[in-house]
Amino acid sequence: MTTPAAEGLSMPPEWAPHERTLMAWPCRPELWEGLMGAAKAESAGVANAIAAFEPVTMVARDAADAAEARAALDGNVEVLQQPVDDSWLRDSGPIFVVDHVDDPSRRVGVDFGFNSWGQKFEGYENDQAIGRVLTEHVGSEVVRAPLILEGGSIAVDGTGVLLTTEQCLLHPNRNPSMDKGEIEQHLRDYLGVTQVVWLEQGLLEDKDTDGHVDLIAAFTAPGTVLLQRAAPDNPNHDNLGRNREIAVAAGLDVIDFDPLAYTSVEGEEIVASYMNFYVGPRFVVVPIAGQPELDAAALDAIARAFAGAKEVIGVPGVVHAFGGGGPHCITQQVPALAAAR
């Protein structure tokens, strides 16, 4: 096939109807160490929260993990035994494009290259293959894109606008032979977007992903973005303020989001971003930090950002934050075709 954009395909927004959600069971020992059990419990919590609204497919790398996952998951979760190296399926899994955002009859999985966030972890061959495997599993065509790209590094609003950070997409450990213009053209060609808004920096504490946008921003409606900001004494204050200036200059309506949690896990201070939430047609699954006042403020702000139109569900997220992400990082939506809605 030619590029998806040339065939009229584009990436729908996250809140468009889903056929299902794709996830993977935590499995990399060197990432989780003594927290592996806690990471699995948090992943089960996310999966079961989503399964109350739509089917979930959970990838498990071997028979033992598959049995463990089945015991922890609700009946609306399919467990698929398939080799994987890590559980951050937002980044290694397929990104789907459709022929009509509002009434799709055709769906294609774009299989971007994956190199473990600039080769930060050894052994990622199975994750390189999982995008094609899962696209075929849900019965869609596959097209390979000539670009290293993680799903957590982008957000789209469904009307042609894509949001990302220069820190991640222009990092030399991703696509060192490509300049900004070439990368942007690939985004246009394979995701069908017409405007790329380049924020500058992600969170300073985000070491593994080099500034993924899904820790600081999320579209809540076409042209409207919920954007993290920080207090003047927070080291992220200036960078996040600059991102706001860029978003406004690009014509986006900005909703400021203040809650930002810090906590200690295994003796290490970490940031636990509430912005790493996952959106469905009827729900928002939000990571909470076990800090009641701050958690409540975050859940309320997110509910208001979606104008009260979605059920907002808080799930424990501190261990996932220790690993580098949250509910958004471990999920990938499969858009529903019109005939199945």
Protein architecture, described:
The chain is α/β, with parallel strands linked by helices and 341 residues long. The chain has one domain (5-340): L-arginine/glycine Amidinotransferase, Chain A. The protein is 29% helix and 27% strand. The chain is built from eleven helices and 18 strands. It has helices at residues 29-32, 36-51, 63-72, 89-92, 116-119, 125-137, 166-169, 180-191, 237-249, 292-305, 318-323, and strands at residues 18-24, 56-60, 77-81, 95-98, 107-113, 141-148, 155-156, 161-165, 195-199, 217-221, 224-228, 253-257, 261-265, 268-272, 278-279, 283-288, 311-316, 332-335. The protein has a four-stranded mixed sheet with strand order 3-2-1-18. A three-stranded mixed sheet has the order 4-5-6, with helices on both faces. The two termini are 27 Å apart. The mean pLDDT is 97.
Keywords summarizing the entry:
18 strands; about 25% strand; about 350 residues; L-arginine/glycine Amidinotransferase, Chain A; three-stranded mixed sheet
The shape is globular
CATH architecture: 5-stranded Propeller
Biggest pleated-sheet summary: 4 strands, mixed
Uncertain segments are: none
Structural class based on helices, strands and sheet pairing: alpha/beta
Q: What is the class in the CATH system?
A: Alpha Beta
The overall pLDDT average reads 97
Helix content: 25-40%
Q: Reading side by side through the largest sheet, how are the strands ordered?
A: 3-2-1-18
Please name the fourth-level CATH homologous superfamily.
Answer: L-arginine/glycine Amidinotransferase, Chain A
Radius of gyration: 18 Å
In total, the number of strands is 18
What is the CATH topology descriptor?
Answer: L-arginine/glycine Amidinotransferase, Chain A
Q: What is the first-to-last residue Cα distance?
A: 27 Å
Total tally of structural domains:
1
Q: What string gives the helices and strands in order? A: EHHEHEHEEHHEEEHHEEEHEEEEEHEHE
